[in-house]
Design a protein that fits this description.
Length: 69
């Protein structure tokens, strides 16, 4: 069996891991607010933001799809 690895797109500029655990009830708007207020980044920059829960056994990601005009 051939090993398969998940790899991000080659044109993905940056990946950020938010270190503090978050409340997983937060949706995209709440995560975007964290990115803006806590990290000082624009959630529309095209970067991928990864968040974890308190037990560190789940991840939730945020990335702008780029389809807003």
């Amino acid at each position: 069996m051939r090993n398969r690895y998940l790899r991000p797109s080659w044109d993905l500029p940056e990946i950020y891991l938010y270190q503090a655990p978050i409340d997983f009830r937060k949706q995209a708007n709440g995560l975007a607010l964290l990115v803006e207020q806590e990290l000082g980044h624009s959630p529309f920059s095209g970067a991928l933001y990864a968040f974890t829960n308190r037990q560190r056994n789940k991840i939730k990601c945020l990335k702008d799809a780029g389809d807003f005009s």
